[in-house]
């Protein structure tokens, strides 16, 4: 078998076999095929697309290119949640203890952020002492004992995906549904979960900008999970404005804690209830969606979720006192209000612009080598649908370096669109994709 023949076959728009896909993935992960040939193949895939079967074969081959974690020693059905990422998406920090408090095991391996703000791991590391480094045995013990653990993905997971993603990034082959779906799912499958709930963001601040593409991506990932024997559900959720109010690592941790105290912003609460319910149903600890929502709400109102968060933090070396004393988290030296220049209704907040404004302050990474400032970020004071008077505070910028203020403020002001007419708020949940059907709301 030759890589040349595989490139030619895909160039001519023929379907690749499982053996051909395994061949190129294994050889490339071992540096036995040069970048320029894999670049040619990726472009052929980008232009001619992949079938459902090819996408599943690619995912499996990339999953098997590195370690595959065995979580069979953990009692119960392990359910993982993956978000395709957005602005202010601190959902996991609230959701993981919520689901664990309902007696479903949460064994989550997460990544770091590249873009607007840090990833889940970066946000958790804003908690003093918190460690995301765990040996597999310790990880398993933590989930069996406490129902919850979150750690970093080992560098040996999905080796081919890391190499291939770097190549896609510089060859304009990133935004292909099959390649995106395979990249996400190979890591989720290698992380050992029995079932997977996918939060596919759509809109201005999301990777997938249109509803149509978001449903296609969700369907591709659900098909992969099903093909690989994992029960998988995909939800399409809104990212046309930031989720909640806080954008920035320690600021998002505070908002997640407030959510567990019953004081969370309505959109974040609704998302946690929805994703959490599906996770409980897949874990077989809730009878149906409504039962799952009831259990999630009870975990908040009873205080069990907040106590679970404290146990989770302490078990991973963190200072649990941050739950009751936010001054123990990284604090910015300056908090500056950004005021509206006109009166009217907030008709839009461009999530991506808010994300970039936070990144300028140091809350996110432009390159993977960038170091984060975990204390900085933006807290929105007004959201879509709110009425503002001239000079009302739209948002607060938390920063440590005044040289970054002007460019961040300019981005933030440009993100807010204020009009005379009130607009209807976007839906938060646009639909659900399962093995059997696509429901659009």
From TrEMBL:
SMART domains: PYNP_C
Pfam families recorded: Glycos_trans_3N, Glycos_transf_3, PYNP_C
GO biological process: pyrimidine nucleobase metabolic process; pyrimidine nucleoside metabolic process
A GO molecular function held by the record: 1,4-alpha-oligoglucan phosphorylase activity
SUPFAM superfamilies assigned: Nucleoside phosphorylase/phosphoribosyltransferase catalytic domain, Nucleoside phosphorylase/phosphoribosyltransferase N-terminal domain, Pyrimidine nucleoside phosphorylase C-terminal domain
Domain Pyrimidine nucleoside phosphorylase C-terminal residues, every copy: 345-419
Catalytic activity: thymidine + phosphate = 2-deoxy-alpha-D-ribose 1-phosphate + thymine; 2'-deoxyuridine + phosphate = 2-deoxy-alpha-D-ribose 1-phosphate + uracil; uridine + phosphate = alpha-D-ribose 1-phosphate + uracil
Annotated GO CC locations: cytosol
Cited InterPro entries: Glycosyl_Trfase_fam3 (IPR000312), Glycosyl_Trfase_fam3_N_dom (IPR017459), Glycosyl_Trfase_fam3_N_dom_sf (IPR036320), Nuc_phospho_transferase (IPR035902), PYNP-like_C_sf (IPR036566), PYNP_C (IPR013102), Pyrmidine_PPas_bac/euk (IPR018090), Pyrmidine_PPase_CS (IPR017872)
Main enzyme class: transferase
EC number: 2.4.2.2
Keywords annotated in UniProt: Glycosyltransferase, Transferase
Described purpose of this protein according to its UniProt entry: Catalyzes phosphorolysis of the pyrimidine nucleosides uridine, thymidine and 2'-deoxyuridine with the formation of the corresponding pyrimidine base and ribose-1-phosphate.
Family: Belongs to the thymidine/pyrimidine-nucleoside phosphorylase family.
Subunit structure: Homodimer.
Record's protein name: Pyrimidine-nucleoside phosphorylase
């Amino acid at each position: 078998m030759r890589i040349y023949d595989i490139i030619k076959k895909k160039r001519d728009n023929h379907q690749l076999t499982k053996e051909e896909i395994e061949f190129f993935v294994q050889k490339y992960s071992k540096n036995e095929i040069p970048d320029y040939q894999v670049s040619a193949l990726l472009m052929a895939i980008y232009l001619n697309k992949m079938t459902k079967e090819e996408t599943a074969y690619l995912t499996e081959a990339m999953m098997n290119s590195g370690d595959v974690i065995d979580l069979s020693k953990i009692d119960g059905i392990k359910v993982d949640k993956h978000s395709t990422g957005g602005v202010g998406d601190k959902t996991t920090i609230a959701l993981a203890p919520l689901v664990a408090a309902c007696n479903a095991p949460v064994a989550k391996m997460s990544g770091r952020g590249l873009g607007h703000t840090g990833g889940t791991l970066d946000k958790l590391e804003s908690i003093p002492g918190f460690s995301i480094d765990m040996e597999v045995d310790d990880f398993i013990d933590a989930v069996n004992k406490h129902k919850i653990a979150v750690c970093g993905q080992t560098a040996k997971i999905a080796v081919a995906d890391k190499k291939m993603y770097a190549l896609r990034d510089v060859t304009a082959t990133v935004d292909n549904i099959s390649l995106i779906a395979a990249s996400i799912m190979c890591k989720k499958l290698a992380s050992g979960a029995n079932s997977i709930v996918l939060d596919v963001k759509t809109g201005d601040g999301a990777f997938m900008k249109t509803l149509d593409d978001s449903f296609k991506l969700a369907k591709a990932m659900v098909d992969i999970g099903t093909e690989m024997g994992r029960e998988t559900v995909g939800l399409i959720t809104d990212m046309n404005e930031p989720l909640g109010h806080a954008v920035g690592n320690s600021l998002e941790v505070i908002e997640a804690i407030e959510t567990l105290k019953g004081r969370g912003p309505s959109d974040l609460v609704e998302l946690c209830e929805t994703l959490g319910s599906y996770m409980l149903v897949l874990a077989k600890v809730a009878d149906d969606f409504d039962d799952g929502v009831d259990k999630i709400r009870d975990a908040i109102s009873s205080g069990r979720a907040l106590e679970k968060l404290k146990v989770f933090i302490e078990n991973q070396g963190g200072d649990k006192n941050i739950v009751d004393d936010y001054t123990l988290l990284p604090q910015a030296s300056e908090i500056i209000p950004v005021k509206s220049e006109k009166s009217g209704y907030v008709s839009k907040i461009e999530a991506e612009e808010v994300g970039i404004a936070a990144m300028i302050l140091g809350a996110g990474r432009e390159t993977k080598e960038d170091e984060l400032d975990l204390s900085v970020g933006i807290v929105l004071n007004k959201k879509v649908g709110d009425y503002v008077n001239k000079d009302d505070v739209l948002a607060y910028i938390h920063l440590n370096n005044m040289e970054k203020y002007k460019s961040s403020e300019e981005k933030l002001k440009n993100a807010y669109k204020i009009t005379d007419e009130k607009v209807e708020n976007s839906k938060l949940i646009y639909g659900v994709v399962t093995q059997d059907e696509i429901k659009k709301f």
